[in-house]
Design a protein that fits this description.
The chain is α/β, with parallel strands linked by helices. The chain is 39% helix and 20% strand.
Length: 347
């Protein structure tokens, strides 16, 4: 299934949002009730959830990767927990980046597995237990803040400073996943990504609720400039415009820009069109890490496109370089407190 957020979600609320408002009210009541009252299973190691307020990308995966690197620097063995969205496997699976393909496990888990132990599971509780069995001593959940049935020790909500909350309405009238008040109550801290102002309102709300917030930005890995180079840029992610801005920031001239659905696996015809257009106009093909891993491991046209792509890799860089370590430390303390409460309850 492909996640495709309607463009009107990211503009000022119009008649479509107000027409869908009754459905959003019902959806929000159900989502908020589940967040507040769901029974959550417990595991013996700390759980950090990297989530967001809205449907679509805000930078969760690069944030999770940055936290995992900080954990490894502390001598810990982090494990990623993902639902495996976009993949076909419906059993709890340890992802092998040298064996699995994105069509089976999803694109994000493949990226995560290149950094640390990664488990996909439709039932996150089962996945968490598998990570413990595999020797992880810290779980980093990529998404699942609103729906997980797992006890979370630190919930970091990522919000894009350019997109913010979109039109501010709850699904299906807008991109917000659950009532903002309930989400803030369940959050530990916020991470504002980028230099825009669209997230300022929610940051102020978080401050009034005594929730700390961090700031960060996506930085292109390495110093691979594309100054003056004409490119064909394609992206099948939640916010392709962000990727195109990144490409232009490297000095490239985007002659052709192609967008596809989030997590979409390209057909041979779509791949052929990209290859033919690039060859005809003498363009360098550039794409994202997620799009690239969806091409990896295939043959034919997909393999040909993968060989011709220049991948623009980005990292989430916290303004305070100590912040990822602080998040981990606080999660460890919260886990100890949670385990003590559980022991007292049992006794």
């Amino acid at each position: 299934m492909i996640s495709e957020a309607p463009p009107f979600w990211w503009r000022k609320a119009d008649w479509r949002a107000w027409m869908l408002a009754p459905l959003s009210f019902v959806y929000g009541r159900v989502a908020g009730h589940r967040m507040a009252h769901a029974r959550r299973a417990s595991v013996s190691i700390p759980v950090i959830c990297v989530g967001n307020f809205t449907v679509g990308g805000a930078g969760k995966t690069p944030t999770a990767l940055t936290i995992a690197r900080a954990a490894k620097a502390k001598g810990l063995k982090p494990g990623f927990l993902s639902r495996g969205y976009g993949g076909s496997l419906d059993v709890t699976t340890v992802v092998d980046p040298h064996h699995h393909r994105a069509v089976a496990v999803g694109d994000e888990p493949l990226l995560l597995a290149q950094e640390a132990l990664t488990v996909i599971s439709r039932r996150r509780v089962d996945g968490a237990h598998r990570l413990v069995a595999e020797g992880a001593d810290l779980i980093i959940m990529d998404d699942g803040f609103q729906s997980a049935r797992l006890a979370i020790d630190y919930a970091l909500l990522v919000i894009d400073a350019t997109r913010g909350l979109g039109n501010g309405h709850i699904v299906p009238a807008g991109p917000v996943r659950a009532p903002i008040g309930q989400q803030l109550r369940s959050a530990t801290a916020l991470l504002k990504v980028g230099g825009g102002q669209a997230a300022d309102r929610i940051v102020r709300m978080a401050a009034r609720a005594a929730k700390p917030y961090f700031t960060a930005s996506l930085k292109v890995r390495g110093d691979d400039r594309l100054t003056g180079i004409r490119v064909l840029a394609f992206a099948g992610i939640a916010d392709p415009a962000k990727f195109f801005r990144t490409v232009e920031s490297r000095g490239a001239e985007i002659t052709v820009a192609k967008t596809f659905g989030d997590h979409e696996h390209l057909s041979d015809d779509e791949i052929g069109d990209i290859l033919t257009t690039a060859e005809r106009q003498d363009l360098l093909i550039v794409t994202t890490s997620k799009d690239f891993v969806r091409l990896s491991g295939h043959h034919g046209k997909a393999q040909e496109l993968a060989q011709q792509c220049r991948v623009i890799e980005v990292d989430m860089v916290f303004d305070d370089h100590l912040a990822p370590g602080l998040i981990i430390d606080r999660a460890i303390v919260a886990c100890r407190e949670r385990r003590l409460r559980e022991m007292k309850t049992k006794s």
